[in-house]
Amino acid sequence: MKATGVIPDHVAFVAIIYACSHSGLVEEGLACFDQMKKDYNLEPRIEHYACVVDLLSRSGLISKAEKFICSMPLKPDASIWGCLLSACRSSGIIEVAERVSERILELKSNDTGRIEIERRLYMFGTGDKFFEQFEEVNKLLGIISGLMAKEGYVTVLRYVLHDVEEDEKRDMLCGHSERLAISFGLLNTKPSLGARSPDQK
């Protein structure tokens, strides 16, 4: 982009840092994040912080990711903590996982989908893309949405209170935290096992 003289915007930086995350380019991703404000006078948004947490977490830098979250000028939401929790689970770092779980529960967010599978708690935020099996969950959501549409279900866009385009409103409803949790549960439970909401008695 520099070579062509194109000035990156907020969306471009999300894509760049996200790409670095999936390529294991930690230093490059962090450098891009720093350049946002330093070189382009762009204030990082919550999604950019989420990308950095994903970048660090995927590379096994759990402690650094936790410190990064705690130093954020913005209040981290459940999806950011959930990204770190997923990494802790994969790495087997129980101590950090327990702290992160407490943080998520303290938020008491109505926008957090939670599901328990074999006594393990998984949490998702609306629009969350930074967790293992996202591609599989997203594909299943598309299948479920298609089946619902065939049965006559119509998305009620007025329930999305954000001032965004209609296509984005549909994406937000499709990626609602509870739908993510249910789809994740369907993918990860055998017919003989059960998945339940932690709120169920």
Structure characterization notes:
- By secondary structure, this protein is mostly helical.
- Helix content is 58%, strand content 7%.
- It contains nine helices and three strands.
- A three-stranded antiparallel beta sheet has the order 2-1-3.
- Strand 1 and strand 2 form a beta hairpin.
- Helix 2 runs antiparallel to helix 3 and helix 7 packs across helix 9.
- The longest helix has 17 residues.
- The relative contact order is 0.10.
- About 2% of the residues have low confidence.
Condensed summary:
With 201 residues, the chain is mainly alpha-helical. Helices cover 58% and strands 7% of the residues. A hairpin with a 2-residue loop joins strand 1 (112-117) and strand 2.
SSE pattern, N- to C-terminal: HHHHHHEEHHHE
Can you list the strand order of the major beta sheet? Answer: 2-1-3
Cα-to-Cα separation, first versus last residue: 54 Å
Number of strands: 3
Q: What brief labels describe this structure?
A:
201 residues, mainly alpha, three-stranded antiparallel β-sheet, 58% helix
Protein topology:
Layout: H1 10-23, H2 26-40, H3 46-58, H4 62-70, H5 78-91, H6 94-107, E1 112-117, E2 120-125, H7 134-150, H8 166-174, H9 177-187, E3 195-196
Antiparallel strand pairs: 1-2, 1-3
